[in-house]
From TrEMBL:
Entry GO MF terms: glucuronate isomerase activity
NCBIfam families: PRK02925.1
Lineage: Bacteria, Pseudomonadati, Pseudomonadota, Alphaproteobacteria, Rhodobacterales
Organism: Paracoccus niistensis
PANTHER family (alphabetical): URONATE ISOMERASE (PTHR30068:SF4)
Isomerase recorded as keyword: yes
Pathways per UniProt: Carbohydrate metabolism; pentose and glucuronate interconversion
Protein name in UniProt: Uronate isomerase
Domain of life according to the entry: Bacteria
Record EC number: 5.3.1.12
Cited InterPro entries: Metal_Hydrolase, Uronate_isomerase
Amino acid sequence: MILHPDRLLPADPATRAIARDLYAAVAEKPIVSPHGHTDPRWWGENPAFADPAELFVIPDHYVVRMLVSQGVPYEALGIGEGAERDARAIWRTFAAHYHLFRGTPSRLWLDHALSEVFGITERLSPANADAQFDAITEKLADPAYRPRALYERFGIEVIATTDSALDDLHWHRMARDSGWKGRVLPTYRPDGVIDPDTDGFAANLDRLGEITDCDTGRWSGYLDAHRARRAFFREMGATATDHGHPTPQTADLPMSEAERLFDRIRSGKASREDAELFRAQMLTEMARMSVEDGLVMQLHAGSFRGHSAEVLARYGRDRGFDIPVPVSFTAALKPLLDAVGLDPKLRLILFTLDETTYSRELAPLAGAYPCLRLGPPWWFHDSFEGIRRFREMTVETAGFHNTVGFNDDTRALCSIPARHDVSRRSDAAFLAELVVTHRLDEAEAHELAPLLACDLAREGYRLEKGVQGARPGGIDDIGISVPPARGRTATAKQLEG
């Protein structure tokens, strides 16, 4: 048996019995995945996955970083110039190092996917690597293992991708027009046209102007271009934006100062301080736009992205070298919160890799400002212990209802049910301990369990049935007026042209 039925549940028999009941009540609940990074092409084109290495190893930076940390070259994992192209050889390398994942959440996710999705009954090892490669390859040829079929098999109710502000959302349109009933939503990720440190930033602003017919050489035109793109994303079903900033710093400059700052940024002669101030100003501008159009705002702060310059240059982004850094929220968010923090139409979900802020800053902030919600443990803390620490450090101050449940934040399709399963087991264990220590009635725990499993995510991301966005100039189902976008909202056909 690869997976023990009581994994992650408390060792104490009485507590475990309560946790089992709580878990059983939510184990088959639908998966609500409001933030993630699955490839939109999967949903639009519904292609067969090429091989086990392409599915489990090459795109998964959790897997890659662990193997690289033990001296395995990227090339041996199918990444980079001159990389290994034999999928079986890549899989053998993965199997030879599978022991490295002992005690990590990746081991739980991988074991779950191999066992529950592909019917594997032995833990991966060098001795069975070829047999498992052949068994998985045979299943991948079956239409039942294509992305849309797996979406349905996993019980996914809705899944959101994360998409560049310049994306034409072609794959989303293909999925929507195909007649398939799956609900796949884009998310507006404008970092490439907000962060001056992005490679090709000036060209990105030019492109933004081209596809919106807005003058992105001027501050007002640049803001109008964002409004136009946000309106396009809403038309395509988006309910949220996402911002991956190094820090949560915000600013609220007078218009004349913001215009001068933008001019310096646009000239390409801005200082490092100017770049940080511009990112800070744009978080406040994005919050104002969320008040206008109702898109839920997500902020992921506290990651030093691409820590190794050599890895970034040779192998690109998202190769395992994004490292947590300390951040502080209380003073950093004050300009934004002073501007729009008490507006009932704003919802801002905060994520961090700096756990020290949970009880000191994030829980008190979310426990006071009605616009704030706490996102679940992110990346390195998306684990049993990480989820437990998050609950222990936030619930006493912010409660459960100022959080948004769980999201899987993954590129690895087969890990989605595994990650939600870990979250549901972790929360069942936490609730059971509240019951046995008489901080909750058992009936209250059973009311909370489905909220944590999926209901808070639906509410937090405005994913309730029918709340999928409104056309510009209309009123959506949550009562937010959506102003007409200035400039032209480009269609997929126009972008392709």
